[in-house]
Design a protein that fits this description.
The protein is α/β, with parallel strands linked by helices and 285 residues long. The chain is built from 7 helices and 12 strands. The protein has 2 domains: 63 residues, N-terminal domain of TfIIb (Single Sheet), CATH 2.20.25; 203 residues, Rossmann fold (3-Layer(aba) Sandwich), CATH 3.40.50.150. It binds S-adenosylmethionine (SAM). S-adenosylmethionine (SAM) binds next to helix 3.
């Protein structure tokens, strides 16, 4: 097989390959979104929002399960791919181009979710806070935001390389993800994504590099305290086991937060019962 030149391009501009790389995660993630809504919302959840929906693997999956979906992203090729995918499957969703730190919806949703580090694309505290404010404004009272991203424990190694392969038909995608540099002081790491695509006897190589914001548990807790309309009511990890909520501590890495919008009475129904248990005391700096 002939070797291919490496193209320096955004991997989000190649939604077909991006999507294939994460296809095994879609079912378990969608199941978790449904389970979390059942557990934490006191009303039937019908309307869902995904900020940074990308190629829309979850938007399409949840639309197929009967939810009314809204998705937004800044990447045009990904949204085009998603619109085509919805049309091909006879599904409907409201999809639009927007910055996840600056959007508003005409009508509130019951719940929202954003997994796999999309949130860490927001590189400043202000953008992250604005994002949480936009989500809070989009949720109905008592609705939840399921937010998944990697935390960096204070004593964890900043180096990291992951590689995995997925196949669909005659296409095989191998992703290598490597942290190139990391600064706890600036709260930034640079990630390199290398994509190797094999299609029959053809090879394609892509490389993309971009920064992500770093969070320890304490840094996220501080951010959350600036958005009082959202309260933490559950913590999980990327095993997505709804039966086993965890306690947030400084050792956690792959973390899924369940944030609930306060009701008009000023408290979330779930928070009163369980939040203080899930939110470890401030003994962690
Ligand atoms: C890791 S992908 C996740 C895509 C999708 N949520 C999924 O799980 O398959 C991150 C997405 O965030 C989008 N993104 C990055 N910064 C954004 C911003 N400020 N506003 C909206 N979308 C953004 C990218 O275009 C990309 O589609």
């Amino acid at each position: 097989m002939a070797s291919a030149k490496v193209a320096q391009e955004s991997w989000y501009d190649h939604p077909r390959y991006y999507d294939l790389a994460f296809k095994s995660e879609t079912g378990p993630e969608a199941n978790f979104v449904e389970a979390a809504c059942r557990k934490y919302c006191s009303f039937p959840v019908r309307r869902l929002l995904e900020p940074a929906c990308g190629s829309g693997r979850l938007v399409a999956e949840l639309a197929a399960r009967g939810y009314r979906m809204t998705g937004l992203d800044l990447n045009q090729p990904a949204l085009k791919f998603l619109r085509r995918r919805l049309a091909r499957r006879g599904l409907r969703a409201d999809i639009f181009l927007a910055d996840m730190a600056d959007f508003c919806l005409a009508r509130p949703v019951d719940a929202a979710y954003c997994t796999f580090d999309s949130f860490r694309h927001l590189l400043s505290e202000q953008a992250a806070q604005q994002h949480l404010e936009c989500v809070a404004a989009s949720l109905r009272p008592g609705g939840v935001y399921i937010l998944g991203f990697h935390l960096l424990p204070p004593d964890a190694s900043e180096e990291c390389t992951e590689r995995w392969t997925e196949r669909l038909g005659c296409t095989q995608v191998t992703v290598t993800l490597r942290v190139l540099s990391s600064s706890r002081r600036r709260r930034l790491e640079t990630l390199r994504i290398s994509l190797l695509v094999r299609r029959r006897d053809r090879l394609k190589r892509l490389r993309d590099e971009f920064p992500l914001r770093l969070y320890t548990a304490a840094q996220f807790r501080r951010l959350l305290s600036k958005v009082p309309r959202l309260r933490l009511c559950g913590v999980y990890d990327f095993w997505y086991d709804i039966e086993h909520p965890l306690k947030l501590d400084n050792q956690m890495s792959d973390t899924v937060f369940i944030l609930q919008k306060l009701t008009a009475e000023g408290d979330s129904p779930i928070f009163a019962a369980s939040c203080r248990e899930n939110w470890d005391s401030p003994r962690h700096p």
